[in-house]
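Data card: per-record layout.
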Amino acid sequence: MGPRHGDEFNLIVAGDNYGWPLVSWGDHYSGLPIPDHDMRPEFHAPDIYWVPTVAPSGLIIYDGSMFPEWQGNAFIGGLRSRALIRIRIEGDQAKEIERFAMGKRIREVEQGLDGAIWVLEDKKGGRLLRLTPHK
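The structure for this 135-residue chain is written out next.
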């Protein structure tokens, strides 16, 4: 989760510097700008970044059998985006592939032992949802 906007998804490499708080795709909460990664190429730029913010919460790398086509994909809950975000990871490359609008802030994402994806909504009245393939 970044400052005001600029949330990042990074492949962490030992010894690399990702630039925070010197660079970001967001701004300080005061509204003052933070230089973009383009201004400081010595820092490792994020694989994916979000402006406006998605306010990421839980994260899983899916390895279940219920959704075999999603094995190796990341799923991130979005508080601000109110979505479940699917990211395809291929080698050292990552790309947002799908965004499932959930209509509520997503606080947590987990994978069940049976391969179902569990999503926890935020705030009063939030639900615990078990996601399975549509049949």
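Known properties of this structure: The CA atoms of residues 82 and 104 lie 5 Å apart. The chain has a mean pLDDT of 94.

See the next section for split statistics.
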